[in-house]
Write a structure and sequence with these properties.
- The N and C termini lie far apart (51 Å).
- With 306 residues, this protein is an all-alpha fold.
- The protein is built from 16 helices and no strands.
Length: 306
């Protein structure tokens, strides 16, 4: 553990503020998780009482936030090193580490049991497994050991639409697996774009992200490759009759620009005349657009469904 982290923990207040604990839930990340969970509820065949639908989405939000809190507890040493994360509550000493991990564990148990009792145990089991996967497989096992961390670990963030679907139907179907696969394949180009322009941070923290281990050129190639492989999964919701023509038209436009952005990232890195700043600017743009892109796809699915 770094000296900075140790000092922060020594100075940590016994109890952080409500805002500090809310920040532990990673609200910005949770927004996308909740939105795709809502999509799973809306897209699933059948009907769910509006109150139970709200409870299902609430459980997904609490479960995702709780996993984020445990992640922050475990990674507080590297968060203190990286400029992107230094102002989080734990590196700043605003929350006691023991309270942070207890907060995450209690919320995880609450979310899983509420989902099981209010909806069904299939959805609860998926929620529990998603939390387990994010904490133990991605955070503890993969992230500090392999450049494939985000490829495998990204599965954790792909569960929400499947959980929402199961909350309505009580089972897992090929359609919900397809929604899972869409997010799963979107995750690497999304995070590798971030890793490109935050490469120095990851290198300093000793995290073997792909740009650190394989270099920028290989990372840019992989971003483009995954963007192309994603294509049939973008078309699948229409082809599987989950949604309608509105989705197909909008999704084709969003995906075409997604591939264009990936091509820009690839070319900016290979051009001899391109400056490093330009190359990172395209990666930063793609990271931001990729969030809008996924929001857009799932919004169009719901509009097409309705």
């Amino acid at each position: 553990m770094t000296t900075l982290t140790a000092q922060a923990e020594t100075a940590a207040a016994e109890t952080g503020t409500v805002a500090d604990f809310f920040e532990l839930l990673k609200p910005r990340v949770m927004t996308l998780v909740v939105f795709t969970g809502v999509a799973g509820v809306v897209l699933a065949p059948g009907h769910l009482n509006p109150f139970l639908a709200f409870v299902a989405v609430l459980c997904i939000a609490i479960g995702a936030g709780a996993a984020g809190a445990i992640n922050m507890w475990y990674e507080r040493d590297i968060d203190a090193i990286m400029s992107r994360t230094q102002k989080r509550p734990l590196p700043q000493g605003r929350v006691n580490p023991d309270e942070a991990v207890s907060f995450g564990v209690v919320l995880t148990i609450l979310a899983v049991f509420l989902m099981g009792l209010a909806l069904n145990w299939t959805a609860a089991a998926l929620l529990a497994f998603a939390s387990f996967f994010y904490v133990f497989v991605y955070t503890i096992w993969l992230k500090r050991r392999t450049p494939q961390n985000i490829v495998i670990g990204g599965a954790a963030g792909a569960f929400p639409p499947m959980i929402g679907w199961a909350a309505v139907t009580g089972h897992v179907s090929i359609e919900s697996i397809m929604l899972f696969a869409l997010i799963f394949l979107w995750t690497p180009p999304h995070f590798w774009s971030l890793a490109l322009y935050k490469n120095t941070d990851y290198r300093k923290a000793g995290i073997p992200m792909l740009p650190v281990v394989a270099g920028e050129k290989a990372t840019r190639q992989q971003i483009l490759l995954y963007s192309l492989v994603l294509t049939p999964f973008v078309l699948a919701p229409y082809l599987m009759h989950i949604t309608g023509m509105v989705y197909l038209v909008g999704a084709l436009a969003l995906h075409a620009f997604f591939i264009f952005s990936a091509v820009r990232v690839r070319l900016d890195g290979s051009s001899k005349s391109a400056t490093a700043d330009k190359g990172f600017k395209s990666a930063k743009f793609m990271f931001g657009y990729s969030i809008f892109y996924l929001f857009g796809l799932f919004a169009l699915m719901m509009i097409g469904r309705m």
